[in-house]
Amino acid sequence: LGVRRDTVGKRIISVANPLGSNPRANDVLTFVHWTLPSLVEVFPDFPQRLLIVSGAQDMWRGGLSGRGSLYLHPARPLVSGNRTSPMLHELVHIASRLHGTAGADWIVEGLAEYYSLELLLRSGGISQRRYNESFDTLEDWSAGVQCAATDRSQGKQTARAALVMRALDTEIRAASNDKASLDTLVQKLVSTSRSVSNADFRAAAMQLVKGPAKAL
Prior knowledge:
Elements: E1 2-8, E2 11-17, H1 25-42, E3 49-53, E4 62-66, E5 69-71, H2 86-96, E6 99-100, H3 105-122, H4 128-141, H5 155-175, H6 182-192, E7 195-196, H7 198-209
Parallel strand pairs: 2-3, 3-5, 6-7
Antiparallel strand pairs: 1-2, 4-5
Helix pairs in contact: 1-2, 2-3, 3-5, 4-5
């Protein structure tokens, strides 16, 4: 195995793979070094050690690999053509450790997809114009798709869920005069439980917008 390590603040990042199987190890370390500070601002309980493993293509497990670790499919880009980031998507799963119950997987996947773009913007990895264009692309791609209760959100439904999260963030900021945001809601969910239901999410949003959330 080849292992490359770096530190980001007080966190130790390791990238491991069979020698010669992943020429992107240094790219991965650089990407994490660039974006992790913005991620930790939203999820301060991010693990002190992060392990990213890569190798055979049939071993893809993403952020489900284990606590504080993920398996990076070697064919997956760090940033996709639509400018969402598969890497940040999985890191959000690791950071939040949220899982949806009773058909709430769209919430977990929507948050991960939303923050995969939002954290690129906050870290300076993408401009505001490209950020806006990315959401336009997600909207066109998921046109006609509804966010419905599901135990497995994928593709267009996850894209639509990311749009819902963006709209909810805007709604929370407007209702609180920018004193709260989607970050506030997520941090509350993470601090109380690692599982989230549709009812939990709706109730948490209602507390911040002082009534029913139009985005939901």
